Q: What sequence folds into this?
């Protein structure tokens, strides 16, 4: 068995002394794992960073075996965001979410295209944060937990029970929460406060999609905390007040 | 394995084969070599192993491995007390020490943040780093984490946590390695080197 494809590295785990087991979201073969011989080595480690785009060839004797990957770097996305805390947090949260939620070996071109577009935004779009939240909405739709934001009136709230928009003046029912739906979910940019609201909304339904109420995705939590800090400092990082200044 | 007859030798080979860089075949060769040179190799090695097992411990200050606590680096008064270099692992500290260019203090985190491997901030020695950085003698914290997603995620997290400590925070430079030729560099290193380019001074 053999195929070649394009993909994005989701995670790399050391296997033995020199090899690594790598998860890749491929264009035509879905989320797929494989063994990379020498994957823990100095040369391969730079390639096998989460978020990098790669050309991959998978080989195995039988289809249901783990198989081995031969991987070549196609686009070094990680290098472009490594020194930006917020963008790096976005990249890590996105790859982790895809790895956790997506079934293995189920081809899904839309998810691949969506993640590629998100990585483009994270790499160079000043309004990437709005794109990130909209990408989470699209992921929720793929997982069967789509929210009806297209038909929401401005200022509408989203019901935690149904995911449907309700008028802002409506009171929540028993056991129901109404979460604000920021306008940028239908397009455009959002300020840090709106981004945090959007992430709270998608976070609730991601927990539901994972069937784990209250489950914390650490990378996503750190991303939300970073946006929340931006909100409180109005996008300007506070000074440090160094000793001896 | 049938060639070796005693359980002692089998056990020796089995344990040696667990060491980094050794497999069953090389472990067998090493064991045979040691057994042939019992007086000059096997016995001194056994004594050295016993002495290391009994004497080496983790430094309560920086996390280094040494026969004394605090370790010889922390106990050395001649070292610069104003800089604190944060590394992921003991091996990273030893690598910096080998270079001989850094004469300050160290702090070993004991790993990196990794959500998929279940390593969170509470599993790393970040709390003790913050306490150390609040010492009035410390003016600068140098983040010397690996140029990986996990390493830099940890570096950003540590930067946030040190925000109130009143210290200058710096990180190691990224880009062209010493002796590196553009033609042979991987695309990731090239991209980061270009992104981290610096103005030429003195013109």
A:
């Amino acid at each position: 068995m053999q195929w070649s494809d394009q993909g994005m590295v989701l995670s790399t785990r050391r296997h033995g002394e020199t090899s690594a087991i790598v998860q890749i979201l491929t264009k035509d073969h879905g989320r797929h794992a494989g063994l990379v011989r020498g994957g823990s080595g100095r040369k391969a480690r730079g390639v096998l960073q989460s978020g990098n785009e790669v050309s991959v060839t998978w080989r195995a004797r039988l289809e249901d075996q783990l198989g081995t990957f031969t991987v070549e770097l196609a686009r070094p996305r990680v290098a472009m965001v490594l020194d930006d805390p917020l963008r790096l947090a976005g990249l890590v949260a996105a790859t982790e979410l895809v790895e956790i939620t997506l079934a293995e070996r189920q081809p899904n071109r839309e998810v691949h295209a969506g993640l590629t577009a998100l990585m483009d935004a994270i790499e160079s779009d000043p309004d990437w944060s709005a794109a990130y939240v909209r990408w989470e909405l699209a992921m929720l739709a793929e997982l069967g937990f789509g929210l009806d934001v297209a038909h929401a009136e401005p200022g509408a709230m989203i019901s935690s029970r149904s995911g449907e928009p309700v008028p802002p003046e409506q009171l929540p029912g028993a056991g129901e929460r109404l979460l604000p739906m920021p306008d940028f979910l239908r397009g455009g940019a959002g300020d840090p406060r709106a981004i945090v609201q959007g992430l709270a909304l998608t976070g609730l339904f991601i927990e539901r999609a994972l069937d784990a109420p209250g489950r914390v995705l650490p990378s996503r939590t750190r991303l939300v905390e970073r946006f929340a800090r931006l909100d409180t400092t109005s996008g300007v990082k506070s000074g440090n007040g160094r000793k001896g200044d | 394995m049938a060639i070796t007859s005693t359980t002692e030798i089998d056990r020796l080979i089995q344990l040696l084969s667990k060491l980094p860089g050794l497999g069953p075949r090389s472990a067998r060769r090493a064991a045979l070599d040691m057994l042939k040179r019992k007086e000059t190799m096997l016995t001194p090695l056994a004594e050295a192993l016993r002495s290391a097992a009994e004497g080496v411990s983790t430094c309560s200050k920086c996390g280094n491995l040494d026969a004394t606590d605090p370790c010889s680096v922390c106990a050395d008064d001649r070292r610069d007390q104003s800089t604190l270099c944060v590394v992921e692992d003991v091996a990273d500290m030893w690598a910096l020490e080998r270079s001989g260019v850094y004469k300050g203090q160290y702090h070993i985190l004991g790993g990196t943040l990794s959500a998929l491997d279940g390593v969170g901030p509470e599993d790393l020695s970040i709390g003790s780093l913050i306490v150390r950085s609040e010492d009035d003698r410390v003016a600068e914290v140098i983040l010397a984490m690996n140029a990986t997603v996990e390493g830099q995620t940890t570096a950003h997290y540590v930067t946030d946590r040190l925000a109130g400590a009143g210290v200058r925070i710096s990180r190691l430079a990224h880009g062209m390695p010493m002796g590196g030729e553009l033609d042979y560099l991987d695309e990731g290193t090239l991209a980061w080197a270009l992104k981290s380019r610096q103005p030429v001074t003195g013109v």
